[in-house]
Specification:
about 40% helix; mainly alpha; elongated; about 10% strand
Amino acid sequence: MIADIFTCTRCGFCCHGETTVSLDADDRKRMVQALNRPEEDVRRSFWRISGNVVQMQTIEGHCIFYDNGCSVHDGRPRRCGEWPLHPSILIDEANFRTIADSCPGINKSLSYRQFCEVLRELLNNDSFSC
């Protein structure tokens, strides 16, 4: 069903920018395990911590883990696994168009209504992940 609305092209566009996703406790644990390094080393080498907010660092305009693909793919944050099929795409058609214009993997042959119907069904499935 995901393939009906999205097929990742591994273009990395979603990994670029000066901001990145926040990491919850499960994300941090999964990342530490995938990197097979001590948490303190991962914290120091890869995370940006501001108060209670933990994010991946960015370097040269992209996520620190982007190197012609995600170098921590098995330990990537949940939000990275969901993107671009995130509930924010359902806000309105303009938001959908903005995200679809930046992501070559989104099936642009579907109408906004058709896309939303499939995505809502996927989001209601607890095991949903791209």
